[in-house]
Write a structure and sequence with these properties.
The chain is an alpha+beta fold. Helix content is 33%, strand content 31%. It has nine helices and 18 strands.
Length: 322
């Protein structure tokens, strides 16, 4: 029988507590806070047990190697996690229940499991270019997925996850359509970038105009260099240099007054582990242009902001500096 689904906040909090336990940085007050969290809700205890079970094998490997080697435990833990998750996915453990949602949260870091049926997709840390028959190119960022279909002679890209940059070499009779759950973008010629977030879509006209049609809001024309974030009901212009949001095509991350939580989400696409941002620091503002190197970027962030980075193998927690 399948395990009972648990709410994501409880699972995220359980991962957060596990990182802190394994890093051995918890004070007496932290241990008391953890005990209170467990007692607050039966779902907290269930989430804690599932997360511990999902990570039992790789963390055992970490502890063993930490006792016998120097500086290798993170790499070994990642390798153990990859082996464990792939075996379980191949055996169908995710589908049949077992460790349930907690295992899925971890396994999904190796590859976007929910997008395996997409026409085009990329894995963690992978960027890839695809070509349409008319010469249009579509570059996918890491952990992105797109479906492609023809609707009465009009090419339609359905962005299911992540980000893309579409380039129309020649203006056609009908504009290229880029759909998300929030609306549609129409590209007659030139280049555009689109990114799908959990709560919104962002689109940028990189060098020519781009028409946006939110599902339940008025149509808007973006001029070259302009960008917008929108939901089905609301559209808002992007501030700063919107075109810099496409810097990932050169392996860079350009951040102009982003909340730390969005920076972490961008890093997640390039990291096969799990990054947890504590709520207390999630809204800290970040500025800068960085290489998409997870370790280097986290080090830089810890120097720029009052942050404490805790890492245990494939788990990273970003919290307040104490």
């Amino acid at each position: 029988m399948s395990a009972t689904p648990l709410p994501s906040p409880a699972l995220h909090a359980a991962v957060d507590w596990l990182v802190r336990h394994e890093a051995e940085t918890m004070s007496a007050a932290d241990h008391q806070a953890f005990a209170r969290w467990l007692q607050q809700d039966a779902q907290h205890q269930a989430a804690w047990e599932r997360v511990r079970a999902a990570l039992a094998e790789p963390l055992t490997a970490v502890r063993h190697l930490q006792a016998h080697t120097q500086g290798l435990h993170a790499q070994a833990a990642m390798q153990a996690l990859v082996r464990t998750r792939r075996r379980r996915v191949l055996r169908g453990a995710l589908a049949l229940g077992g460790l349930g949602v907690a295992t899925a949260l971890v396994a999904d870091r190796l590859a976007p499991l929910g997008e395996l049926m997409a026409d085009w997709r990329t894995g963690t840390g992978e960027r890839r270019e695809f070509m349409l028959a008319d010469g249009t190119s579509v570059l996918l960022d890491a952990r992105s997925a797109v479906d492609v279909h023809d609707a009465a002679g009009v090419t339609v890209l359905q962005l299911r996850a992540g980000a893309l940059i579409a380039t129309c070499a020649v203006a056609g009779a009908s504009p290229l359509q880029i759909h998300t759950r929030d609306g549609v973008a129409l590209l007659d010629a030139g280049r555009m970038m689109g990114r799908l977030y959990a709560d919104r879509t962002e689109m940028v006209a990189l060098d020519q105009g781009l028409t946006l049609r939110p599902r339940e809001s008025a149509q808007t024309l973006l001029h070259a260099g302009e960008g917008a974030r929108f939901t089905a009901h609301r559209l808002q212009a992007l501030g700063g240099h919107a075109v810099q949001r496409a810097a990932w095509q050169q392996g860079m991350l350009a951040v102009d007054d982003w909340p730390l939580a969005d920076v972490a989400q961008a890093l997640q696409a390039y990291f096969s582990g799990y990054i947890r941002v504590a709520p207390a620091v999630a809204e800290l503002r970040v500025f800068g242009i960085f290489r998409l190197d997870v370790d280097a970027l986290l080090t830089t962030l810890s120097q720029m902001l009052p942050l404490q980075i805790q890492r245990w193998g494939p788990l990273i927690r970003i919290g307040e500096k104490v």
